[in-house]
Specification:
about 45% strand
Length: about 325
């Protein structure tokens, strides 16, 4: 999750008026400031017997642009493909069983709303919005009301996913749209959906302003191969708003040769050597330290490859052509209740 960072505009005129009327910083403002050496506990700790509502948005984009003759190759047609999935879900955390020592906390997830859209070669292929669609037999309509369970750790890692059979059965079918809906119940995607990468991993949950920690994230881009990044998170600030202490975290990623464990045994094609690439992978997060909840976490990756292809009569080109390809991924989780 370039993010599409939530804007934070400072209205200068209002600030000047406030200073003129008060003459000094209020005691509440002084108490909201965090000293550089204050230790902050960064942990996902929802209250027992609580319900929180979230919106999760995932987007994937891919485009191809030619400068010169376009080869006769289906996979390299000029245009753009886009997919966007938005799910509103509630997360219920039950009272803990005091007779059992737990290292993880269970939560029940209920899907409340679903929106999905896809574009192929610039043309709308599928659109669905559960708030307006009245067809109860639509596979995406059957997602609404489905539940499943997860367990989470204080660093918001999701070690366990369970209770998927009912939801899978509800959306199963022979059509491609059934398969798209079925993927929403993929354990791997559920872990990404509900996990928050911005927390320090393991038991190192404490940080001071300026502290950084990192994780590895790998993406597969078909015939362009794998691209892997070290996501570096930094605790930038802690502020107080409406009685809640909020930790502000920034992420900037750098390319790395290290791979996520799940990709280490994958055999992926090597990217063409005649392509140069540029990358932008950034993100932001806000953690409510008072409630122990994530307010938002947004990360966005954009990769662009540019290469010159030699003439290929078999592909219908008689002179060199420039190919520019782009791919983008957005992952955004936001608390709405």
């Amino acid at each position: 999750m370039a993010s599409k960072v939530l804007p934070a505009f400072v209205i200068c005129s209002a600030l000047v008026a406030l200073l003129m009327s008060s003459g000094c910083t209020s005691q509440a403002d002084q108490q909201s400031k965090t000293t550089a050496d204050e230790t902050i506990l960064l942990a996902f700790q929802p209250e027992p017997n609580s319900v929180t509502k979230y919106r999760i948005i995932t987007e994937a984009h891919r485009s191809t642009e030619w400068q010169g003759p376009v080869p006769n190759k289906e996979s390299l047609k000029q245009g753009h493909n886009d997919n966007r999935l938005e799910i509103i879900f509630s997360q219920f955390v039950p009272e803990p069983n005091e007779q059992i020592e737990q290292e993880t906390t269970p939560a029940l997830i209920k899907i409340e709303q679903v929106k999905y859209s896809s574009t192929v070669q610039g043309r709308t292929d599928l659109e669905f919005d559960s708030s307006t669609n009245q067809d109860p037999n639509h596979p995406f309509a059957k997602l609404v009301g489905q539940t499943y369970g997860i367990t989470f750790t204080p660093d918001n890692h999701i070690p366990t996913v369970f209770g998927l059979s009912q939801g899978r059965h509800a959306v199963s079918g022979p059509e491609e749209i059934n398969q798209i809906a079925l993927r929403i119940f993929s354990p791997e995607l559920i872990r990404e959906r509900h996990g928050t990468p911005a927390f320090p991993k393991g038991k190192k949950q404490h940080a001071i302003l300026g502290d950084s920690w990192s994780t590895i994230k790998t993406f597969a881009f078909n015939f362009m191969g794998l691209k892997s990044y070290e996501r570096v998170y930094t605790l930038r600030d802690v502020v107080t708003s409406d009685g809640h202490r909020l930790a502000k975290i920034e992420m900037n990623a750098i390319p790395t040769s290290k791979l996520e464990r799940r990709f280490q045994k994958e055999r992926m094609p090597q990217p063409p050597t005649n392509f140069d690439s540029t990358d932008s992978y950034t993100g932001t997060a806000e953690v409510d330290l008072t409630d122990g909840l994530v307010n938002y976490c947004s990360e966005q990756l954009t990769v662009t490859w540019t290469g010159v292809l030699p003439p290929d009569p078999k592909q219908g080109t008689t002179e060199p052509v420039v190919l520019k390809m782009s791919a983008g991924v957005l992952h955004r989780l936001e608390r709405i209740d």
